[in-house]
């Protein structure tokens, strides 16, 4: 079959690879209808996540049609239209039983490297390096979905393929952050990053009762989407002093909840940013924590910070003093989508959550390398490049 593969740092190519097969009774095989790029793919593409191999099939945010079902699968039949959680979880281990699905003890068949890097291995993810399981991704005609009863969710009639696509990764990641940060009705929430993840975190926060939500980015087309489709306030970090402006808009106190949805490749200006870039390029630190630091400074005393942006290793100049003395609660996670996807699909069906607007560029899988370049360079207002393995392309919205 045809698949879009990682072939080296900042290089992808459409290649012919083996068709997936059922390997386990709890697997299904999915014919991919739509698969999209995510900010996490950029960290892979840029070589910041170790243990990628040339020829690995990319893609972890996807939906499609079930074409084959393992003998032990109960919830799905051939022909079902499903969206699939990007993290793979067994549904039965100690962590799954507590709803911490991305920490599943059985999701990652290759736990050695992350065990060494982080003290414990976390679960597995489609196409997220061999350290996170070495699973083939969804930028392909077909994909094997392990533990399908746990990770695949039937899309309700009336929810389009495009809308359901983002219930796979961007939206449940946003919900993981908003819920995990412990939003209570009336809260003020600031979200760093207006990509798919930040936008969904902002909408999740609103649906969980936040009164004021402010999304920070520098890209005007993304900030416009936030105003139009999410209904949140915006802030351009290249025009305003973010910490001062957030205080100004919150009666001098700062946001109750801060959600970081930028991750290890944050951008900024000034000497501190230059220092981070140089250190990252020299591999003296693995990640650029620009937005993370700002969130720690901006958060109100006793507030809560949730880190959704992906970080891989160690960072420098982390404001530990501010964190400790201001009594902040800090959490982070890869998404626990198995917990949130049914509710997200329902919000879409009920007209409470817009996701389709994220699909700014829809193209054939053959155009994958171009799609990745556009997404990486944020060209032509690209928020997500969406690939259709059946070949049909539709004009950009
Ligand atoms: N925790 C999870 O399960 C999970 C799942 C998906 C993605 N992610 C991570 O979430 C992050 C965002 O993903 P995405 O798909 O929205 O990515 P994206 O690349 O589309 O968006 C990132 C946004 O951050 C903005 N940004 C950069 N520097 C900033 C700064 N200093 N202040 C404010 N905004 C800044 C960029 O302009 C961009 O709009 C990535 O790190 C990704 O790896 C995590
Ligand atoms: Zn993702
Ligand atoms: Zn498990």
Automatic annotation (TrEMBL):
<comment type="similarity">
    <text>Belongs to the zinc-containing alcohol dehydrogenase family.</text>
</comment>
<dbReference type="InterPro" id="IPR013149">
    <property type="entry name" value="ADH-like_C"/>
</dbReference>
<keyword id="KW-0479">Metal-binding</keyword>
<dbReference type="InterPro" id="IPR011032">
    <property type="entry name" value="GroES-like_sf"/>
</dbReference>
<protein>
    <submittedName>
        <fullName>Zinc-dependent alcohol dehydrogenase</fullName>
    </submittedName>
</protein>
<dbReference type="InterPro" id="IPR036291">
    <property type="entry name" value="NAD(P)-bd_dom_sf"/>
</dbReference>
<keyword id="KW-0560">Oxidoreductase</keyword>
<dbReference type="InterPro" id="IPR013154">
    <property type="entry name" value="ADH-like_N"/>
</dbReference>
<dbReference type="Pfam" id="PF00107">
    <property type="entry name" value="ADH_zinc_N"/>
</dbReference>
<dbReference type="Pfam" id="PF08240">
    <property type="entry name" value="ADH_N"/>
</dbReference>
<dbReference type="InterPro" id="IPR002328">
    <property type="entry name" value="ADH_Zn_CS"/>
</dbReference>
<keyword id="KW-0862">Zinc</keyword>
<feature type="domain" description="Alcohol dehydrogenase-like C-terminal">
    <location>
        <begin position="196"/>
        <end position="265"/>
    </location>
</feature>
<feature type="domain" description="Alcohol dehydrogenase-like N-terminal">
    <location>
        <begin position="25"/>
        <end position="149"/>
    </location>
</feature>
């Amino acid at each position: 079959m045809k698949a879009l593969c990682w072939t080296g740092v900042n290089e992808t190519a459409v290649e012919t690879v083996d068709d997936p097969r059922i390997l386990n009774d709890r697997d299904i095989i999915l014919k991919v209808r739509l698969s999209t790029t995510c900010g996490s793919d950029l960290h892979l593409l840029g070589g910041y996540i170790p243990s990628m191999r040339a020829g690995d099939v990319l893609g972890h945010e996807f939906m499609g049609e079930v074409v084959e079902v393992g003998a032990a699968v109960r919830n799905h039949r051939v022909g079902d239209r499903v969206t699939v959680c990007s993290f793979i979880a067994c549904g039965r281990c100690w962590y799954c039983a507590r709803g911490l699905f991305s920490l599943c003890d059985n999701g990652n068949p290759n736990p050695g490297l992350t065990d060494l890097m982080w003290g414990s291995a976390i679960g597995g993810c489609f196409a997220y390096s061999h350290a996170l399981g070495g699973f083939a991704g969804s930028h392909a005609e077909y994909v094997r979905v392990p533990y399908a009863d746990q990770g695949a969710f039937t899309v309700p009639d009336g929810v389009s393929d495009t809308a359901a696509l983002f219930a796979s990764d961007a939206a449940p990641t946003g919900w993981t952050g908003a819920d995990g940060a412990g939003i209570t009705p009336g809260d003020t929430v600031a979200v760093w990053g207006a990509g798919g993840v930040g936008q969904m975190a902002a909408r999740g926060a609103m649906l969980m009762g936040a009164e004021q939500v402010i999304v920070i980015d520098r890209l005007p087309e993304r900030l416009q989407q936030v105003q139009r489709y999410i209904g949140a306030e915006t802030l351009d970090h290249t025009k305003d002093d973010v910490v001062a402006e957030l205080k100004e808009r919150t009666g001098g106190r700062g946001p109750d909840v801060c959600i970081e949805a930028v991750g290890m490749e944050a951008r900024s200006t000034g000497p501190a940013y230059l220092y981070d870039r140089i250190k990252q390029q020299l591999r003296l630190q693995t990640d650029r924590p620009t937005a993370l630091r700002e969130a720690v400074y901006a958060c109100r005393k006793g507030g809560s910070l949730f880190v959704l942006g992906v970080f891989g290793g160690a960072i420098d100049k982390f404001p530990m003093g501010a964190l400790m003395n201001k009594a902040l609660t800090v959490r982070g996670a890869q998404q626990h989508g198995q917990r949130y996807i049914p509710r997200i699909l329902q919000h879409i069906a009920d007209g409470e959550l817009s996701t389709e607007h994220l699909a700014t560029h829809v193209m054939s899988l053959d155009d994958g390398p171009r799609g990745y370049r556009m997404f990486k360079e944020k060209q032509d207002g690209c928020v997500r490049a969406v690939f259709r393995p059946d070949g049909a392309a539709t004009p950009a919205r």
